[in-house]
Each structure stands twice: as structure tokens, then as C-alpha cells.
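Hi Q.,

Before the meeting this afternoon, I wanted you to have the magnesium ion prediction in hand. No need to reply - just skim if you have a minute. The sequence and ligand are here:
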Amino acid sequence: MTLTGALLVGLVLTLVEGGFAVVRERDKAERRIAQIMNLVAGPAATALWNFDTALARNQFEPVRTLDLVDRIEIRDMGGGIFAADGVAATAGSWTGFIFEGLLRAQRPLVNIAEDGRRREIGTLVLFIDPRAIGDDLRTYILGSLLGGLLRNLLLGAFLSVIFHRFLTRPLIALGRDLIRVRPAEPLASPIRVPRGHRNDELGYVASRINELLAQLHRSQTELRRLATRDPLTDLPNRVLMTETLNVALERAGRDGTHLALLFLDLDRFKHVNDSLGHGAGDNLLREVGGRLRGALRQSHVVGRLGGDEFLVVLENAGTVEEVAQAAARLLAALSRPFGIDGQVVHAGASIGIAMHPQDGADAVTLMRHADVAMYAAKAMGGGAFKFFDKAMTERALVMLRTEASLRDALAGDRLDVHYQPKIDLATGRLAGVEALVRWPHGDRMISPAEFIPVAEETGLIVELGEWVLRRASRDAAHWRHIHGAVTVAVNVSARQLAEPDFPERAVRIVSEAGLLPRQFILEITETVVMRDVAKQMAVLNALRGFGFGVAVDDFGTGYSSLAYLKQLPVTMLKIDRSFVNDLPEDSAIAATVIALGKRLGLTTIAEGVETDRQLEWLRAEGCMLAQGYLLAKPMPADQFERQFLMVMAKVG
Ligand code: C2E
Ligand code: MG
Ligand code: MG
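Predicted structure with the ligand bound:
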């Protein structure tokens, strides 16, 4: 392209130059012809006047030697040829066309009489050789044409390289970047400033485009914000909340996680609006928005649907209890009085909760059910939350109450630990005890089956577990001092194991009582051990490293992989009560576990032994230890001390 252009321009230039050369050559030829005329005209006139043909011929001699003139003629007034020499060139040469009009030059021959009068007596005619004038021109034109062409070719090539390198290539790169720009996401692929062009026009264009893209992005963000945010509270509006909910539902469906939708409505908003005015109402809504946001985790989303209605989406909601806790937190945040325009305002709120997938699969159904539940909460007088599923509300309330009083009991040291002896089946001697937490409540004892799950779900189990271990260590230290060492088993929950420094903390607790970890067995439920073997392996190794024994509790209820079991650093298998219960009629599993324990060199123990027949079967089968109501129920520490340590009872 550039090359062709340069050639064309060169051609035009050459033609123009050629034109000038023609004019110049014509000029030159004219001047030479005039010189010849001047030279010859005088003597020719004299020769004609005197009819002296010899003189005329003499004049022709020098002229004919000039290449320029082909033929020379002297004519009389009648046009007759008086004298002539040479042959006129035939026309048709290319220069003939250019020098048209020059090729035949004539001049009148004049005789000047004695009185000085001039009289025309004839004509001198010169026939010019067009080749003679053309030669120079041709040489010139050919030279300048070829030279010019070559020069222009080189120039063109040079220019195209320069153009390509400094203009075309960066422009193409720029164009490519421009094509890549997606208007929906203008900042995703910015225009790259071509290398080396930072400070020139190209660089300027690129950075200007980038500025424009950034501006576009800002406007889009602002537009989106305006379209999806509630201007009053700056929370997501209904549009964005619906979108968020749909995305969250899709994710929950895919990952199989739970999702909770909380529909929140202020209890006394209308009252505030009516009595303090809409300005105060707006201020209250703003405050409410801020408090809701503050009461939620980062991953939870709260938005305003309009009026005094808010919507909260809890992704990865966990259990009903955890959802209830979040709802309670929101209610607590709104139950504190608001200071609006110098007035104290009590707003309060009612919350309706719908759970995915239990209460509905899609956004519309969940919203409707959350709304229904919210009205139920309002009907109860407000200031409360309700699940769409009534049973969930019950469960949640029990849980919340349980958690509160359990926390209280723990803080007030009002929990207790009972001990259940483990008996060696070969010798009938005491082989150790299992520490089981007890919660005395009024005149009854709340079962661990009731509050351990709550403690697990609320995370209180970590604190509770440490409390039990501390109490058990203290009791064990006391017994040891008086009666000698007793092996103490303590139950450990999944949450405790997940604490990053659990092994170190456990060591610290037992050593604070002056004991060594090897006097303790940590009982971990089979399902917990097998849940994430790779992770547990590290923790169990650490515990074993410190000297703790590790028992797999409730063995047989989970799905232990034998391969894993072989690798896991455990010391004891505890046959679950349900299998012991079936003995001796249905003994396959118990027999298998005992055989497995022997094979792997692990201690086997049967829990929940209630009958003599069970005990007999276990002893015959080679089970090493037994624990159960038949032998002894869990009992307070002092009773255990009296019955077992002072007497060292024997069985069988
Ligand atoms: P577990 O560790 O399997 O404890 C054995 C349970 O079986 C105890 O119930 C015990 O009282 C009961 N038991 C013992 N012998 C018999 C029997 O012959 N027949 C029957 N029917 N039951 C028997 P408990 O004390 O109610 O504890 C229930 C569960 O609560 C325990 O199961 C354990 O998983 C958990 N737990 C108890 N204390 C703690 C603790 O301090 N921390 C943790 N994380 N969990 C605990
Ligand atoms: Mg146990
Ligand atoms: Mg058990």
C-alpha cells in the first residue's frame, strides 16, 4: 500500500520534472535555431540577391555540419527553391510530437538598399532534426525517470517499514485491544499503551481511551448502584435481593447447603411515622439498616424491600439453631432503643423464617412462606421470630433457652461429671473410668443427649469439653494421690478436635493437675474420626505423641474404612451399645469388631452391657473390657471412690 503510494507519487513527480525538462529543452532548441538563423540569414539574403548559388552553398556548409539542421532551403518570393541542401527527416519520432512547431523554422530574407530601405526578397527555411533536440531530452528523461523510480522505490520501502513499525503495528495492537473491550465490563481488558509510545500521540490516544473506559465503568457502577440500592439505607433493594436470592438458591442447590430466608418487618414503624413525621421515619429506617448490617456476618446479605420490610439471606445457614441465633441477634439489635431526632424510639421487629429446601425450592415460595411466618410472629405480639415450619420454631426456642442456661451453668460451675467404671473381663478388676458430663437442673438431671448437641451446634462444646477434662483431671489427681492411678476416658467432640491447638490445650489441662496424658483416653466418635481422616490423622498423631490414648467411640455405627483404621493412631475400639444390646443372638458385628481389634492390636471394649448373657458372650469371645449398667452405672466421683477405689470390687 505505502509502497504503491510512494511509487505513484514518484511517477507523478518524475512526470512533472519531465515536463519542465521539455520546456527547458524547447527553449534551448529555439535559442540555437535563432542563433543559426542570425548566422545564416545575412549571407543567404546576399546570395539570393546576387543569384550566387555558390555563395548560398557556402553558407550551407557550416550549418549542415551542425546535427541540429536536417535541410536548409533558400526560397524566392514566389516560393520557388533557389538553393537547398539536405533531406528533411520523416516525421513520427516521439520527439516530433513534443517539438511540434519547432521543426520547421523560417525567417524572411531581407535586402537593405543603399537608401536604407528594407525589402523582403525571399525566405530562409530550416528543417530541424527532431532527434537532435530529442536526444538530450530522452537521456535526461530516461535517467531521471529510472533514477527517480529507484529513489522512490527505496523511499517507499523505507517509509513503509517506518510506517509499519511506528504506526501500523501499534495501531493494529490498539485496534485489537479495542475489539476486546466488553462494554458491559469496560475495565476487564484495558487498552495497552503500545511499547515506546507512552509519550506520543498514540500513547495519548490509548490512555485517553482508558480514561473513557474508566469513566464508563464509573457511570455503569453508579447506574447499577442506583438501580439496585435502596437510596435511603444504601442496602440492596428488592431487585438486587431477588437476584441475590436466586443466585444463592442455585448455589445451595448445587452444593447441598442450607439457606435461610428471613423476612423482617418493624413492629412500630407506622407509629413513628405518624407521630414524628416521615423525616424521623426515614432516619429510623437508616438506623435500622445499619444495625441489621452490623448484626450479620459478612457473608450474609440484608436488603430493604420497601417500607419497613427487610429481607435477610443466610447462605450456608447450618442448622435451625444457628439460623435462630442469627434471628435472635437481629431482634436484639433492634430491641435497643433508637435516638431519632432527639426522641427515644422503640422500634422492635418481627421475623419470619423460611428454610431452603424444607420450606420451598424457589424464591417466590420461600418469600411467601417467610412472609406468612412473619405475620405469625406479629400475631404473637411482635418482637419475635417464627419459622414457617412450627416444629422448627419449637426446636429453635428450646435450643436458644438451653444454650443460654447451659452457658450460665458452665460459667457458674454448676455442671458435674459422673464416672462409669470399665472392667477388665479377664481379671474382673477395674480397668478405668469414663467421665460423663451431668447437668443437674432443679431436682432432675438433664441428659447429655439433650444438651451435648446444643453445645455442639453453638460451639459451647469447646468450653464445656475443656471444663470436663479439667474436672476429670482434678478428680483423677485426687484418686491417684490416695489410691493410685486410674485411667480416665473423656469424650471429645468434633468441634474440639477442629480447634487448631486442641492437643496442646489438652496437655496443659492434665498437666495443671499434675498428671501425664498417658493416664487419659480421649473417646472420639467413629463418625467424627472418619469424617475427614486426613485432617484427623494429624491431630490424632499429635495426641498420641503426647501420650494420650485414643478410643474410637460408638464403633460399628459409622463406616470405618479398614484401610484407614489400620493407619489411624488409635488404641481402643469401643463396640457401640446397639450391637452389645443384640447379644448373644445377633453377634456378627460384635464378633467382627473383637476379631478386628485383636488383629490390629487394639484394646476392645463393649459399652452398654446390661445382662449376664451379654457379659458371658463377650468374655468367651475375648473382648477385653466391658462397661455398662450391669457392672456399674455412671456415678458421682465420691461414690465411685467409695465403691471402687476403696474396695476394688471384683466381678464374675
Ligand atoms: P458415650 O460416650 O457413648 O457414653 C456412653 C453412654 O451410654 C452414656 O450416656 C452412659 O450413661 C450410657 N450407658 C452406659 N452404660 C449403659 C448401659 O448399660 N445401658 C444404657 N442404656 N446406657 C448406658 P450419657 O452419659 O447419657 O452420655 C451420652 C453421650 O453424651 C455419650 O455417649 C457421649 O457421646 C456424650 N457425652 C457425655 N459426656 C460428654 C462430654 O463430657 N463431652 C462430650 N463431648 N460428650 C459427652
Ligand atoms: Mg464415650
Ligand atoms: Mg459410646
